[in-house]
Amino acid sequence: xxxxxxxxxxxxxxxxxxxxxxxxxxxxxxxxxxxxxxxxxxxxxxxxxxxxxxxxxxxxxxxxxxxxxxxxxxxxxxxxxxxxxxxxxxxxxxxxxxxxxxxxxxxxxxxxxxxxxxxxxxxxxxxxxxxxxxxxxxxxxxxxxxxxxxxxxxxxxxxxxxxxxxxxxxxxxxxxxxxxxxxxxxxxxxxxxxxxxxxxxxxxxxxxxxxxxxxxxxxxxxxxxxxxxxxxxxxxxxxxxxxxxxxxxxxxxxxxxxxxxxxxxxxxxxxxxxxxxxxxxxxxxxxxxxxxxxxx
Length: 296
Ligand SMILES: NC(=O)c1ccc[n+]([C@@H]2O[C@H](COP(=O)([O-])OP(=O)(O)OC[C@H]3O[C@@H](n4cnc5c(N)ncnc54)[C@H](OP(=O)(O)O)[C@@H]3O)[C@@H](O)[C@H]2O)c1
What we know:
This protein has helices at residues 2-10, 30-41, 57-66, 85-96, 119-147, 168-188, 216-220, 226-238, 245-256, 268-279, 282-293; strands spanning 21-24, 45-50, 72-76, 101-104, 109-111, 150-155, 193-200, 212-214, 263-266. By secondary structure, it is of the alpha/beta class. It is globular.
C-alpha cells in the first residue's frame, strides 16, 4: 500500500482534483495526434507518447492552435521496446498520479500478397500492431485495477473484421487484437475497466504513405503477383480517404462515456464493407472485392 501511495497518490502529480489522465501511443501523426488534441480539448491531461521526439513539431503546432499545449505532456516511447514499457508507465503514474484512459493507437501496415510475405515481415507487423498493445495494456492494468476504473481503447480497423487483399499480415494482427480485446473485456468488466475496439475504415493519414512497409518480394520485383499488385495499388490509390478528425472525436466521446460498447465502427466504407460481408453469400462477396480491386 505504501508503494501504491507513492506511485498512485503521486506526490509529484500536476493534476487538479477533477482532471483525468489519458495516455496515447503513436501521437506524432494521424489519428494519435488528433486524438491527443481532442482529449486535451475535452479536459484530459494527455501523456502523448511517440517513438521519435524529433517528430513532435506537428503535435506541438496542433496543440498550440487549439490552445491546449499546457494539457499535453510529450514523452518518448517506442512501443516495440518491450523492456522499457513497465518503467515508462510507472513514470507516468508517478508524475500524474493515475491513468484513466489508455489509447493503444501506434501502428503501421505491411503490404504485399500473402504468398510473398516473409515470416519475419509478418512478425514485425505483429510486434507493433498486436504484442505492443498487449504489453502497454498489461503495464497499465495494475493501476486501473487499483483505481477500480479505466478505459482501454484499442485502435483496431475494419481490417480486423474483414480480411483485406494485399494486407493479410495487417488484417491478421488486427484480428488478433480483436480476439484478445474481446476476452480482456470480459475479464476486467468486474474490475470497473472498460475495453473498447475502434474500427476505422479508410482515413487520410501517413499509414497510406510513410508508414506502409512493402514486403521485400513486392519491392525487388521477384513476386509472381507483381502485375496484379500494380493493378491493385492503382485501385487502392483511388479509394476515398476521409478526414481522421472524426475518429479522434469518436475516441474522445468514448473516453468520456462511463458505459461504452465493445465495438465502434467508424467511416461509411467500414459500415458498407461489414454489411456486405454479412449480407452477401461469401462467394458473391469475394467476386465483388476482386472486381473492385482488379485482382482477378
Ligand atoms: N488511417 C486509416 O485509414 C486507418 C484505418 C484503420 C485503422 N487505422 C489504425 O490507426 C492507427 C493509427 O494509424 P494512422 O492511420 O494514424 O497512421 P499514421 O499517421 O501513420 O500514424 C501511426 C502512428 O504510429 C506510430 N508508430 C508506429 N510504430 C511505432 C512504434 N513502434 N512505437 C511508437 N509509435 C509507433 C507512428 O510514429 P512515427 O510518426 O514515428 O512513424 C505514428 O505516430 C493504427 O493502429 C492503424 O492501424 C488507421
